[in-house]
Specification:
Blueprint (H helix, E strand, L loop, with lengths): L1 H24 L3 E5 L5 E5 L5 E5 L2 H7 L9 E2 H5 L8 H8 L4 E3 L11 H7 L3 E5 L2 H11 L3 E3 L10 H14 L2 H22 L9 E5 L11 E3 L3 H5 L3 E2 L5 H15 L8 E3 L2 H7 L3 E4 L4 H10 L1 H5 L2 H4 L3 E3 L10 H15 L9 H13 L4 H6 L12
Parallel strand pairs: 3-6, 4-5, 6-7, 8-10, 8-12, 12-13
Antiparallel strand pairs: 1-2, 9-11
Length: 383
């Protein structure tokens, strides 16, 4: 009996020592570096998060960690909207969470600090600017990691960086690499189909009525337009690329911080007449503005060759509190089918869109997207 007690005592001591060693080996915190190069100390194990601002909830959806969210923004709680690609899939879940902010893509700190404290997340993941992250962290005492992202061209390396920062916080690295590998495969496919098309065989394209920090009319366009960049299109506005974004792009490259340039801008009508594009794409959500402009100035529109020849097509908005990467991919394939019908003859847009949606968000909601006003096809200005 004494021998048995001695053995049990020895085993208990060994177990206690092993437990202590394990506790010492597992730190309480770890450090992540966000897109502003801020070193943020977070709990070693993260079980709950609040996602705010540009790309916050969207990245959570892409990484399939919405279940970790303990609060949601008003715009995600109040109604389902196809303007946000994750909303058709996750609205029912998000609307049950407490409100922790209004939402939006300004990059400013608009989180509800008291509500966030009550929600008690381990980490706040926010698409905020650097100073705004510091401010919210001071207000709440909860670590704030920024994943601020704006497109520079077509799903650039900034997207990969932001996704990987988010994934590192929540431990979703495997899912992150699955998404990034798929995005890279789509990018390679789009490029391979179009890279060898001579410029003289490409139609000259213009995108107008682009939604960017709000709704706009025909003359609001975009340099380095993602859907055009993806398929090596001739974007007539890109003659202004360096003027519009050169300084911001150079600053981001030099600092290693997130790109915050403004690729969207208003162009003079006379410049559009001078460009006289072969094909025009317009955001269907802003056609009421374009049709009002047509009623007031039909001569301008009727002078453009693309309009005379019926070469006007929709280009659904991809921007809503940051870029909807799902829609960026679909738009790129759509642009390819219009600009290069031979190279994209095998693409059925509805099937491709369903594939993209299922990989990125786990569900095909293409019909809902189109029914919600983000649809594809030719359009008539003034109709």
């Amino acid at each position: 009996m004494k021998k048995l007690l001695s053995i049990l005592l020895t085993l208990s001591m060994v177990f206690a020592m092993a437990t202590c060693a394990l506790a010492e080996a597992t730190p309480e915190t770890r450090t992540v570096v966000d897109v502003w190069n801020r070193e943020v100390e977070i709990p070693y194990e993260v079980n709950s998060i609040v996602c705010l601002g540009s790309m916050g909830p969207r990245f959570a959806a892409y990484l399939d960690v919405v279940d970790m969210m303990v609060g949601a923004e008003d715009m995600d709680i109040e109604k389902m909207s196809v303007r946000f690609d994750y909303s058709p899939v996750y609205h029912e879940q998000l609307k049950t969470l407490p409100s922790v902010g209004p939402g939006g893509g300004s990059g400013e700190n608009n989180g509800y600090a008291e509500a966030i404290i009550q929600a008690q997340p381990d980490v706040i993941i926010a698409g905020f600017n650097e100073d705004d992250c510091n401010e919210l962290q001071a207000q709440t005492g909860i670590p704030v990691v920024s994943i601020r992202y704006r497109t520079k061209g077509f799903i650039d390396e900034g997207f990969h960086r932001s996704m990987r920062v988010f994934a590192e916080v929540v431990g979703a690295q495997e899912r992150c690499e699955e998404v990034l590998s798929y995005v890279d495969a789509c990018k390679a496919d789009l490029n391979d189909r179009t890279k060898d098309v001579p410029d003289e065989d490409k139609p000259r394209a213009y995108t107008g009525a682009v939604t960017f920090n709000g709704r706009h009319g025909f003359a609001f366009t975009y340099v380095n337009f993602p859907a055009f960049t993806a398929v090596n299109a001739l974007n007539v506005a890109d003659v202004l690329l360096e003027e519009r974004t050169g300084e911001a792009a150079a600053e981001a490259a030099a600092s290693g911080k997130a790109y915050i340039g403004n690729d969207g801008f208003e162009v003079d009508l006379e410049q559009i007449i001078a460009w006289d594009p072969d094909i025009v794409f317009l955001d269907p959500g802003n056609m009421d503005l374009v049709n009002d402009e047509y009623a007031n100035n039909p001569g301008f529109f009727d002078s453009l060759r693309a309009i005379q020849e019926g070469q006007v097509y929709t280009m659904p908005s991809t921007n809503a509190a940051g870029p909807n990467v799902t829609y960026l991919l679909i738009n790129a394939y759509y642009a390819g089918t219009v600009l290069y019908p031979e190279q994209f003859a095998d693409i059925n847009l509805e099937e491709k869109a369903g594939e993209i949606m299922e990989l990125m968000l786990g569900e095909d909601f293409f019909d809902q997207m189109q029914e919600g006003g983000l649809y594809y096809g030719p359009i008539t200005i003034g109709a």
